Amino acid sequence: MSQSRREELAAEFRKFLPTENVVDQPTSLAAYECDGLSAYRETPLLVLLPETIEQVQQVMRICHQQRLPVVSRGAGTSLSGGALPHPEGVVLSLAKMKRILKVDTLSRLAVVEPGVRNLAISEAVKSLGLYYAPDPSSQIACSIGGNVAENAGGVHCLKYGLTLHNILALKLVGVDGEIFEVDQRSLHNDGYDLLPLLVGSEGMLAIVVEVTVKLLPIPRCARVVMGVFDSVEMAGDSVAAIIAEGIIPAGIEMMDNPAIRAAEDFVHAGYPIDAEAILICELDGTEEEVVAQIELVEGVLKRGGAVETRLARDEAERLLFWSGRKAAFPAVGRISPDYYCIDGTIPRKALSTVLTGIRELSAEYGLPVANVFHAGDGNLHPLILYDSNNEGELERTEELGSKILQLCIQCGGTITGEHGVGVEKLGEMCIQFGEAERNQFHAIRECFDPLRLLNPGKAIPTLARCAEFNSMHVHHGKVPHPEIERF
Amino acid sequence: MNAIVDVDIEAELVTQVAALAAAGGSVEIVGSGSKRFYGEPLDALPMEVAAHSGIIDYDPAELVITLRAGCRLRDVEALLAEHRQMFGFEAPHFGPEATIGGMVASGLAGPRRGFAGSIRDFVLGVKMLDGRGEVMQFGGRVIKNVAGFDLSRVLVGSLGTLGVILEVSIRVVPMFATETTLAFEHSSADAHIRWVNELGSQPFPLSASAWHDGTSQLRLSGSEQGVNHAIAELGGEQLEFDWALLREQSHALFAPEQPLTRVSLPPASVDLVAGRPQLIEWGGAQRWLCGEVDVDSLRQKAAQLGGSVCAFRNHGTDVAVFHPLAPTMLKLQRSIKSSLDPAGIFNSGRIYPGL
């Protein structure tokens, strides 16, 4: 795309956007060339930063008329390349739309603009005794609009659900610039329920311009117990045993030995470095309820073969127990020049099969793997340790990663639990879904966007793209936004 | 040993639909017919699907059950209860032979819905048959899954208009250790609505609420400790109350043969029909009116508050069953139907003209 075309378009958008909200200089555009998946980079034609819904509509009308691809972007923390720019299109950043428009205590909801940070919602309503439950690891930085686009998860999904379960209404701008709304504040919808299509649609169906989120009362009490195990199988079985007791923990996380060692070395959370696995289990509710459940869980862990259980004595220790888990990604980044993070989900009963498979694959490829696991909901994050300076090691890592995801599919699981498909997992989409399903995805997209202008090339592979296989590269332990915890 | 029979008629259903797709024609998908009243009446041949029955997978520790859609709801609930588990949305049966497919397709949930998720929130994946005779699978059998557009959840409440549900994976929840109902006096609907919404801002283990004729009922479900704590803080009078009366609409308010109207509103909304007998559920979000009512004027009032009105039962054919959609939304929804059922074979017109 020529510089003159860029300038011509910039002038058109500047008719209604402030000059600085139209980014057209190469040095400034560079900041938008990738998201959290930094291996993929593209320079967009322009970056537009509207501040009002009307401006979003005007942007969309022009893009629609001129057939310009539009990649919407929140905070740019996606780990799957969902916000990777299109070289002949614009990036529509919602980052300047970051007002909390309304908090309604009686109805327990907040109406926010898409650029509001996830954590900012909980911070704004904390004094009312309320919070917004989904807590993706990047919650300090990621935006609610991006959370909606990716159906973001977190460590509390088993009990409190994903983004979809915590959204009451969306206001959207369609590809033609028209506003439409999906409003389920009444716990009802007329006609088809479009919320599950729109939430998690990776910016391919419409632009989210206003989000109404559900707020929950802050639990009166939260406590954490840690179980230490000599085998990952025993730890996995203990998770099933806790659930068999009828307990749904607020969070239940597992780490294997390589992950424990890396985390302990990094944050000194007091983890036992010789353990094969630890379980970190959080329970919340009233004081009496939590005390009773902690006792039950400790019993289950001991019967399940835990060599030790540790109860966090106070809030400080609870946070310390969590700190190691939350720092697991950067911790692994310290012990290896590079790592590649996988995001598969499996039925929990397949855990030992999958971990055994990963161990065998790891030995076959000569690449160490550390595992962290949202054990309650089966979301596994194997971290492959490698060094991209070694000839061919990156390619072997990508191949190993893909084999792990294929193992997840074979065991009845899925290729992405919470990071999204983006550009990263287009290849694996071809394995998980047949041609009929993939054609149906394209057909659904065309209901909203017949010209395929919204985030083209993402999430759903074309036949031609089915051969593509990509990976997340982390060089010398550096990921974009290194300040953000990655679970 | 459970009563669920294992019969796979998928191949026959595929053949039937392929023949329809080739020759033209339309059908009404029928399970047991327990919820057939819900929606606009159809003039099409029935396509019987209730025989497609069987458990595909159920491991209680996974908190997920995968079933053929013809399984009877009562048998599945009994199976879950054997493992001290249940569905989290308390679906109405409206008939002894109610099927899982009908439950999902109607999307109707019971008293717990006001305080827990909808059926859509618990559905994890489906295997379905579209209008071309193509079998497709969406979603999966795991709780966390963001691969592909989530069509499995769009099927919930679609009343059979998008295709035949063959199999469905649903998340289940543990049964509560204990459950109790408290009664309180509130002379007006508005007083009840305000009170129950204020309670929602505190971490009480609420699982149902109802108001009728000056009395509020509040159900608490959870651990012994959590429920006892809430009883101590809330006061009220502990009593026996059969919530199935509300779930199955056999409560005194639901007079048979009378028009029944469902008003859906953001829960804290003011009372729209002051002075008239009504039953208010779901913390104020679902309100039932029995007897003659001016549906159009009620629709206008509800819409202004972000709500809608359904002419649920016995309204005759002069009134549209479902609250009208904006024209652009209807157009979008029709295009979604066309993408799965291009020839309009399945239940066409059940929800709106062309849908």
Query: From the helix content, strand content and strand pairing of chain B, which structural class follows?
Result: alpha+beta
**Major β-sheet of chain A, in short?**
8 strands, antiparallel
How is the CATH topology of the largest domain in chain A named? Alpha-Beta Plaits
Overall CATH architecture of the largest domain in chain A: 2-Layer Sandwich
> What is the residue-mean pLDDT of chain B, rounded to a whole number?
96
Cα radius of gyration of chain A in angstroms? 23 Å
Report the total helices of chain A. 16
Task: Name the features.
heterodimer, A: 487 residues, alpha+beta, Uridine Diphospho-n-acetylenolpyruvylglucosamine Reductase, domain 2, Uridine Diphospho-n-acetylenolpyruvylglucosamine Reductase, domain 3, Alpha-Beta Plaits, 4 domains, 16 helices, globular, disordered C terminus, B: 355 residues, 8-stranded antiparallel sheet, 5-stranded antiparallel sheet, 10 helices
Task: Describe the protein.
- The complex is a heterodimer of chains A (487) and B (355).
- The longest helix of chain A has 18 residues, at 393-410.
- Chain A folds into four domains: 3-93, Uridine Diphospho-n-acetylenolpyruvylglucosamine Reductase, domain 2 (2-Layer Sandwich); 100-217, Uridine Diphospho-n-acetylenolpyruvylglucosamine Reductase, domain 3; 221-264 and 276-318, Alpha-Beta Plaits; 330-467, Alpha-Beta Plaits (2-Layer Sandwich).
- With 487 residues, chain A is of the alpha+beta class.
- Chain A has 16 helices and 19 strands.
- In chain A, strands 12, 13, 14, 15, 16, 17, 18 and 19 form an eight-stranded antiparallel β-sheet that branches. In chain A, strands 5-6-10-8-9 form a five-stranded antiparallel β-sheet.
- In chain B, the strands form four sheets. Chain B has an eight-stranded antiparallel β-sheet.
- The longest helix of chain B is centred in the N-terminal third of the chain and has 14 residues, at 10-23.
- The two termini of chain B are 41 Å apart.
